[in-house]
Each structure stands twice: as structure tokens, then as C-alpha cells.
Specification:
Elements (H helix, E strand, L loop, with lengths): L2 E2 L2 H8 L5 E4 L1 H14 L3 E5 L6 H9 L4 E4 L2 H10 L4 E4 L6 H11 L3 E4 L2 H10 L7 E6 L6 E3 L9 H14 L2 E6 L3 E3 L3 H17 L5 E3 L16 H14 L7 E4 L3 H4 L3 E11 L2 E4 L8 H4 L7 E4 L9 E7 L8 E9 L7 E4 L21 E4 L20
Length: about 400
């Protein structure tokens, strides 16, 4: 992997015709340190967010050795990188062969579920193993999240009562978990989730070995400015204390976006300008899925390379390189008015899901990945004025 001091140096050196994905190790280090220093328990990295081997090694090197996985291939990936890492299979719907292979070949003992059928599947696939750690995922409101996960996953609080009792019978350890939804914009969601867990504990009189508050911790975007992450973590601590348990269970969290979003960006080239439409060489079938389907407004910066740039800013829509009209990113993306064909743009906050969703549709695909050491366009740690990042 080639290394550059900045995206400017990268563009000046490579003058790339295809998109270039950038990795910033220093950004990962900062976010990992924040969680390690402020979260009152074990931090599990959600591998789905960014399974790039370089990123995972950076995460491990900075002290996180626990991983939330959703598939047998993610299990294999983590084992390939670190044979001693602790793996938690937290997807609540798994194939029997995946459960069996994870347990018998990769020493995975921790499994999440949200139905009785899934519990039976886990027990049958492991031949009723006595060393299983079972986590009941409870569905809670995702009202403050940009992406709602509660419609697909989680047992209702009333269903969770029976599931917890069953898991207590069959598991070596039991846990209760929830997820506030992706990119949660209000810390109160975590306190509500923990309060729901408290009600289940009170009704069943079962204090779980683990309370898992899940993921959903937010990153910063031009139109989404959450409170500092420290505030979320303090809210979690306060809410756990309010449970007034005689002995506090072990506490887990599963951050993904908050750990890696700032660490990644994509350098794209303008292919055509049509008034306020910019046609670029990457799109929703590449690293910009988040800008298309869920319509995240990603931070953008024109890379000037010494060219005179207009001080007048204009909002643009982006169109990707494929022949599909769905390859469209509404934005709005704010850039200098005189941007033109051949100019380069850096698009930020793509450390989360940027490389994960790439396809080879229409033959457009780039796996050119470089390391850069400059700061990300936007940061939870260094909040700039709204327009400071537009030109470099």
C-alpha cells in the first residue's frame, strides 16, 4: 500500500484516472482511544463496517481484540488476521452450517438470537454444547436513528422474557442486547434501551452475565452533528447505575461507524459538468452507496493543485459512472462554482461502508487503496466551521 502525506500529494503524484480510496490510521487510533478510555466495558468492533485487513490490523494494534461478526466469512477473516482474537457471532439469523463451522473449526462460543427457533438451531448445530454464551437481542425504538434496524431484528420485550429463561437453561453465560439503530443522533436512545433491559431483569429475576448496548454510535456529517461521543458514553454509565443492580454484569458495545468513518475517503475525478450536475468516476455501485440509497450528505473538498478557485460556492448533485439512473447522489454537495471536468474531489466519511458495498457493475471498479497522513475533512475531534473544509 502506497503512503502519502496528504491527498494533495497523492493526486499530484498519481494523477489517478480511477477512484482512489484513502485510509488514515491516525483517525482510527483516536476513535479507539476514546472508546477504550470512556466505555465502561468491552469494545467489540463491528467488522461489517469496514472489513479491510489493514483497518482491522490497525484496530488490533491499538488495543481492540474483540470482534462482532455477521457471517462465517467474517469469522474466517478475523481468524486469518489474529488467531487469538475473541469472536462474537452477533447476527441473529445464521445458517446451520455457519454455526457448526464457527463453533467446531474456529472456536466461536458466543451467539446472538432473537427467536426460539434460532436458539434451537444453535443448540442442534453444536450438539447441545455446554460452553455456549447466548445473547438475546431485544427490539427497542430506533426513533433517533438515521437507519432503523428494529424492523428486521430483535425480540419484543415480552418475547425476550421467555427467551432469556430458555437461554439461562442452556447457556454457560447469558446476555441481553439491543441496538439503537445506525447513526443514532440522540444519546437518550441508549438510556431507553438500558431501561428496557432493566424491566426484563426485574420481571424474570435473571441478572444476565452481559448487557450489550450494541452499536449505533454516530459519526459527524455536514448535516448531522451529534453531541460528542463522550456524552453518549456518560449517558450509558449513568443509565447502568440507575439499574441499581447488586452486581453489575459485564458491559459490551459494538461500535462500527464511530470507529472508522473518519478514517476513509475517496478521491474521484469529474468526468462531466452539466450545470449543477457533476458526473464522477465513482458512485452508488462503488464506494458511495451511503450517499445514494440512504442519502447521507458526505463532506466534499475540491483538490485544487494550485488552480485558482472561485470563492462562490454552489450545491451540486453527483452522478456515478454506470449506465444506471439509480447511480445518483442527491447531496447537496457544496463545492466551488468553477469546478470542471478533470478536477479532483475528495469525498469523506467513507471509512464506514465505503469499501464494503463496492460492486463491479458495468465493469467500473477500483481497488486502488493508499494511506494518507493528513486530517479527515470532518472530525468529531476537531470540529471546524461549516465551510472551512471545502477547498484545499
Amino acid at each position: 500500500m502506497r503512503k502519502f502525506t496528504s491527498v494533495n500529494e497523492l493526486v499530484n503524484t498519481l494523477k489517478p484516472e480511477d477512484p482512489v480510496y484513502c485510509i488514515r490510521p491516525n483517525s482510527v487510533k483516536k476513535s479507539v482511544e476514546l472508546f477504550k478510555n470512556n466505555f465502561p466495558g468491552k469494545v467489540l468492533y463491528a467488522v461489517k463496517t469496514n472489513p479491510n485487513e489493514k483497518i482491522i490490523k490497525i484496530i488490533i494494534d491499538n488495543g481492540i481484540e474483540n470482534f462482532d461478526v455477521a457471517s462465517i466469512n467474517e469469522v474466517k477473516l478475523i481468524r486469518k488476521i489474529d488467531s487469538k482474537a475473541k469472536i462474537y457471532f452477533m447476527h441473529t439469523i445464521k445458517g446451520r452450517e455457519s454455526i457448526k463451522e464457527a463453533y467446531y473449526q474456529y472456536n466461536v462460543k458466543d451467539f446472538a438470537l432473537d427467536t426460539k427457533d434460532e436458539l434451537l438451531k444453535i443448540l442442534e448445530s453444536t450438539n447441545n454444547a455446554k460452553d455456549l454464551n447466548l445473547y438475546v437481542r431485544v427490539s427497542i425504538s430506533n426513533e433517533h436513528a438515521e437507519i432503523d434496524l428494529s424492523r428486521k431484528f430483535g425480540a419484543s420485550p415480552s418475547e425476550a422474557l421467555g427467551l432469556l429463561r430458555l437461554c439461562k437453561e442452556h447457556g454457560k453465560k447469558v446476555g441481553l442486547s439491543f441496538h439503537v439503530g445506525s447513526q443514532c443522533m440522540h444519546k437518550i436512545s441508549f438510556s431507553k434501551g438500558i431501561a428496557e433491559i432493566g424491566k426484563i431483569i426485574k420481571k424474570t429475576k435473571i441478572v444476565p452475565d452481559v448487557i450489550n448496548v450494541g452499536g449505533g454510535f454516530p459519526a459527524i456529517y455536514p448535516d448531522l452533528t451529534p453531541e460528542p461521543l463522550e456524552n453518549y458514553l456518560e449517558e450509558i454509565k449513568k443509565s447502568l447505575k440507575n439499574l441499581k443492580l447488586e452486581k453489575m454484569p459485564e458491559i459490551f458495545c459494538e461500535p462500527g461507524r464511530a470507529l472508522v468513518a473518519e478514517s476513509g475517503s475517496t478521491i474521484v475525478k469529474v468526468l462531466l459538468k452539466k450545470k449543477q450536475k457533476l458526473y464522477i468516476n465513482d458512485g452508488t455501485y462503488g464506494s458511495l452507496f451511503d450517499a445514494g440509497v440512504p442519502n447521507f450528505v458526505l463532506p466534499t473538498k475540491m483538490i485544487t493543485n494550485g488552480r485558482v478557485v472561485s470563492k462562490k460556492l454552489t450545491t451540486f448533485n453527483f452522478y456515478g459512472p454506470t449506465c444506471d439512473s439509480l447511480d445518483y447522489m442527491k447531496g447537496p454537495f457544496l463545492l466551488p462554482n468553477n469546478i470542471k471536468e478533470g478536477d479532483y474531489i475528495e469525498i469523506g466519511q467513507l471509512g464506514a461502508y465505503g469499501t464494503t458495498f463496492r460492486t463491479k457493475f458495468n465493469g467500473f471498479y477500483s481497488d486502488n487503496i493508499c494511506q494518507v497522513d493528513d486530517k479527515p475533512i470532518l472530525s468529531m475531534y476537531d470540529r471546524k466551521d461549516k465551510f472551512d473544509y471545502l477547498v484545499a
